[in-house]
Every structure is written in C-alpha cells, then in structure tokens.
Amino acid sequence: MNVFNRSLAAFFLPFLSACTTLESPALPWVDESGYFTLFGLDALAGERESGYAPGEKGDFWTWSLTPAEPRGTVVFIHGFLDHSALSGQLFEFLNRRNYRIIAYDLPGHGLSGGVRAGLEDFEEYLTSLDRVMAYWDLSFEETLFIGHSTGAAILLDRLLSGQQLGGAVLASPLIRFRHYSGAVFMTEHLFHGKGSIRVSKKPVTSNPAFNEKKRQDPLAIKRMPLNWPLAVRTWEKNLPEGERPCSTDLLLLQGERDWVVSYEENITRILDWFPRTRVRYYPGLKHHILNEAETDDVYGELALFLDTH
User: Fold this and answer.
1) Can you give the pLDDT at residue 189?
2) What does R_g of the chain's alpha carbons equal in angstroms?
3) CB-side exposure of 47: number of CA atoms within 13 Å?
4) Got the DSSP string for 39-108?
5) Could you give the angle at which helices 296-307 and 88-96 cross, rounded to 10 degrees?
6) Hey, what domains does the chain have and what are their CATH numbers?
7) Of 74 and 223, the one with more pLDDT
C-alpha cells in the first residue's frame, strides 16, 4: 500500500482469481450477408461493400457505405473492446449528410483476425489503418477521419509522425487510461503481462439503449488480455514532447464523466503537440460520447466541423 492507494488495489483484487492464459478463441459466428441487419445498419441508404484487408497476424474486416452522390469520405476507427458496427448513431448522422462511410475492426476485434483484444505492439493498430486505406485506395490527405478512444490514438500517432489528414475528429482520445501508472505497474510486476481479466460491465454511456446493445452484442469481448496495457505503455513512453508541425484541422470531443481515459492529462499533451486543436467539453457525457442519448450538441459541433471540409 506504500505505492498504490486502497482504491486502486480494490480495482484489481477482484480479478486476481480470474486470470487465465491468453488464448485465441474462435470468433462468434456471424453471417456476413446478415451483418448489416444484425447491427441495425440495413436501413442506411447507399451501396454496401465489405471484405477483408490483408494483415500479417490476421485479416481486417472492413466495410463501406456509399450514397449516390457522396460529398466526401469519412473513415471511422473504433476503440478498444468495441467493433465498427456499434456506432450506428454516428453512421446514421453521416449517411443523412451524404458522406461515404468506411469502417473496420481493429486486430482482435469484431470480425477481424488475431488474438481477441490481444496486443503485443501498438504498431499492429497503426498497420491496420494503413492496410485498410490501401484496400479502399484512399488518400490520407483527402480523407476525413473520426477516431474514438484507441482509434483517436491511432490518428494522433499518424499526425505525430508527420502524416497530414483531410481532417480529424478525436472523440475521447486515449493516451493514458485512468489509474495508468498503478495499473501498468501491477500488470507488469504482479501478472507479468500474462493472462487476462474479465472486462468491466460498468456502463460507458448514460444511454440505456446503447448499454443494452453492448450487453447483447454477439461480438462482445469478455476478457481483456494483460499484454494490452503494456503495449500501450511502450507506445506512450515513445511519444515526443513539444509542439509538432501540423496543418490538419483537429476537433476534440470529450465528456467530463469519462471514467475510462485520463482525459485531463491527455488533452494537455494533445494541446502541447497541436495548439490549434478545437476542444469541446460536455459535462454530462461519458466515454462513448458519440453514442450517448443527449448528443445534439456533440453532433452539432461535428456537423460544423465537417461542413468546413
């Protein structure tokens, strides 16, 4: 207790007996032909396409929805423990505004290959975006991006490496998660980065409909591999300091009831790198800010951003 406070220890102790060897179980069966119907996306207007972008440890499930006269292309990157089909509210918004939507499942998520939610190196996430962009023959500079949590972290890494984007929305961006230092220490020294723990069932929105959707999700991930926090730590330690050159317009959306990411210090770092970032805070919203019940202000801000690109 001389290193960690009691609340942090209490967070981990219930999971100690639940640790298991990290495995790669078979994905739940989902018929691709009924995928859009299963996740309530079949009512969206436009031509639907889907397939697998090739990857080294497994291929990446990706899909597109193209209206008759698209005004632009938006690539959506979901967060850790989610998958691309969960954000129907966002897709309905983009579809109404006649944007072509490209989405994909991160490695180990949804219908993509790889160990379920496992991560040896953050580069695996970065590579997945490159492969999906190549699959759809898209240009980074001419494409708009919306990244949620880990998806936003992928976009931040691309920007820090000097890649210019057509525009980027960072929703609840991940750099550090809550209880970061203590959680990483315990994962490394107590669990040695091995095994997995049960995924928390604590709601990530105040929207009962979305929370129930996640609860009933046939592609839900039930256990979190303990190599993931260490891979994020290694990535985070190598991030640069100080302002970086960037001509990409950035919008950051953050709920102030977010218990998943350490948003105060994350946003401080983002503004150090990219001072021109427009930051919007929402006092009543949680981590899944794009799937909350009261999102008029969020989507109003998003509409203003998209209309300028």
Assistant:
1) 57
2) 19
3) 5
4) TT-TTS-SEEEEEEE--SSS-EEEEEEE-SS-S-EEEEE--TT--GGG-HHHHHHHHHTT-EEEEEPPTT
5) 40
6) 6-22+32-307 (3.40.50.1820)
7) 74
Q: Which two tokens stand for residue 196?
A: 């997995």
Token match 């996740």: residue?
39
Name the token pair of 9.
């220890």
Tally of CA atoms within 13 A in the half-sphere of 258 that contains its CB = 28
Residue labelled with tokens 């503004």: 271
CB atoms within 10 A of CB 198: 13
- In terms of Cα–Cα distance, which of 253, 250, 85, 78 is closest to 149? 78
Under a CB-based contact definition with an 8 Å cutoff, are residues 248 and 270 in contact? no
String of DSSP letters for 182-240? HHHHHHHHTSTT-SEEEPP---SSS-HHHHHHHHT-TT---EEETHHHHHHHHHHHT--
Place of tokens 């207007």: 45
pLDDT of amino acid 202:
86
